[in-house]
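Following up on my earlier thread - several people asked me to post the actual chain instead of describing it. Fair enough. Here it is, all 359 residues.
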Amino acid sequence: MSFYQTLVEHSMVGIVIVQADNVIYRNSEHKRMFRHFPKRISSELECFIHPKDYEAFRTLYHQIASGKVQQLHLVFRCYPKLETENPVQMKWIHCRGNRIDYDGRDAVLFNMQDITQMKALEHMVRVEDKMALLGKLSAGIAHEIRNPLGGVNMYVEALCTLLNESENLDARDTEEARQIVEKIQAVSDKIKNVVRRVMAFAGPSTPEFKRISLNAPVEAALNMCEVTLRKSDVEVEKILMKKLPECRCDKLLIEQVIINIITNAVQALKDTTGPKQIVVETGVDGEWVFARFSDSGPGVARHLKKKIFDPFLTTKAEGIGIGLTISHRIITDHNGSIEVGTGKSGGAEFTIRLPYALN
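Reply from S.P.:
Thanks for posting it. Predicted structure:
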């Protein structure tokens, strides 16, 4: 192998040569990036490149192949895994195409670099910026609501006192007035609860890290949800690793995350006709300890999976859509991750991962 062949084979950029519409060479990095790659560019790329980017790539290729231009750049999305048993994973690719001479014939040289991670980081930065701005806005709104709400509660309490001391109202009028007051109090409590959750979203508590087993907050959260689970006829199967390595976490905050996941699962199982079950599992995954929660409900719609942790996204009639957003922030503050997928029974599956406590 010549010096230049060695450079190409060991390049960190995927290199492809196309001649007469056929792929005649791929270097090692390109084969690593794309286990399967179309052999004919014009006829086989449509099922590989994202529909929104296919026309742009086709135009780029034909302009270079026809000699109209010598070089073009393009960023496109594609699906490198075509096996039906594997989930489709989209990649972002930065591609540069050049017209070259190869063995005395015209050819197109493509240099491709996987920028999926960079795009993910850019998305995270944009989300963090939006979250910070949204947090400030939410705190301001919550503050404006909380002040008049305090006045409403004060007047309701005064009205209750007057009703208790009144001698001029008959029993029927008194009972009707009490029912009205109870409704006002119920609405007031709902508003107060929303304000509390929005304030938690705007400025969540700073974690107080301690070395504990992840099993501890899992068991505590299940105990707190025991009554709700029993009333909803939901069976819980626990598969907890006995000697689970310790992690550094805030037990109360992790409990809050787990309670939110379990509560969502119970609500998802509400209209399920079959067995209502939640499987709770803890274990080790590489350098992480994990807690996984799978339910037998309808699962999370595919189009919602990437947005499930976005603020104010909810499928519940009375939800405001910040529970999972707060949970995501808490786990991120623990240098961990929280992911949503599909469990073995077809329902939703949430997995929390936290790093080992090494010292």
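The longest helix spans residues 116-165. That should answer part of your original question.
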